[in-house]
Amino acid sequence: MGGFPILSAVVFLPLIGALIIMGVRTATAGSFSKEEAGKDNRAALLAGMIISGATFIASVAAFLTFDSNASGYQLVEHYAWYGAVTYKVGVDGLSMPLILLTTFLTPICLLASWNSIHTRVTEYVVAFLILETFMLGVFAALDIVLFYIFFEAGLIPMFLIIGIWGGKEKIYAAFKFFLYTLLGSLLMLVAVVYMFQAAGSSDIEVLEKFAFAPEVQTWLWLAFAASFAVKLPMWPVHTWLPDAHVQAPTAGSVILAGVLLKMGGYGFLRFSLPMFPDASHLFQPAMFALAVIAIVYTSLVAWRQTDMKKLIAYSSVAHMGFVTLGIFSFNEVGVQGAIFQMLSHGLISGALFLIVGVVYDRMHTREIAAYGGLVNRMPVYATLFMLFTMANVGLPGTSGFIGEILTMVGGFQASTWAAAGAALGVIFSAVYMLTLYRRTVFGEITNPKLEGIRDMSMIELVCIVPLALLTLLFGVAPNLIFHITEGATNRILSLMVGG
Asked: Domain coordinates of the chain in residue numbers?
């Protein structure tokens, strides 16, 4: 355990930055005039972007020391903490890409807030940086108690982001988000305590190899699934997500869809499959059924939405259904596809929420009927919107195609009917996304307020263009991801069979 603790630096750099910003804010409280307050807000956002940008650079440095050919945990740091509970962090091919996704999206979120957040800006930046630390901690933790602490702590800053800087019904949406995710996680806490007592350790590497009795696995699996299913989210515990997305500020929706939803899929892969293999096989048909229902049902619901943000929110539930299908296929193709789909969805859904935010900042409405003919005034916007529409549909050449096709191929190897049901979702996604695009972008301008609407600004382009480039890059060169995730995928599957 020699050398610089780079992984801990990545995890806690945003938190340290948040504390510094809070300290400076406290020291200068009341010293600004109204004219200076605006400059203070910009300074807080700039500081947040610098800190989150430095975190991204640190995560890239960590990745450069990561051996993609190894299947075990790397960059491991292990310190005594409290009794048998330890501070242990590390990464493998499953967690490393998700850490990079988190550190990549966070500065984009803060930049996207440059012209849209005007109240309590310093507190907003602090909340985002603290949230980043908790999200990174979830993916880096190799102690189950440490994982649970990070997993639950992330609720607090996201609750505040929705509840303070959200829309008209922000309080309702924030409490719904908080209660759904908290109540599901309470069952997981009971399971964590039992596992700690039974195995005598909270070390994830020890628990992966500990043979829980099949009947015990069933209850432990259900307890963990109660939390991960809400986080993913799976039908029918998905209803908090559309409300949270609609009420959250644009950046909140980006980080919610881009990273927080991935914690559910990550949890199933990190805990449910390797630690409770018998129970995972037992519940495979049920998970396939829930995945297909999520894909088909929420796609149909998305088609009938009149709010752009709510449509994309339901689309997220459908796409995470493909993740569920791939995870529980229990084969390399499906699991690789599920991990790829999580990363791809983080880029595409994040971009789509940014796309909606662009016109919302100008028109202050997300109603589809308020738009139409945007291509006549916003050609650059229309081009990028088209790219992400096609990626969300799963057009070949984009990352959306790779994730969907692999999860369906993996699902087909395990269950023909499940793959057939998921294929309907591909058709339905084309229906609702192309309908959305046609109604907002094509045609003549019928709303006089759109006559003077301006095309995308440089800040908006800087936020969205990198997501577009990565969506195309991973669509034509998916092996850039598979090379990293292959070792972790094989390790998870080998643990399921006692290998």
From this structure: 276-498
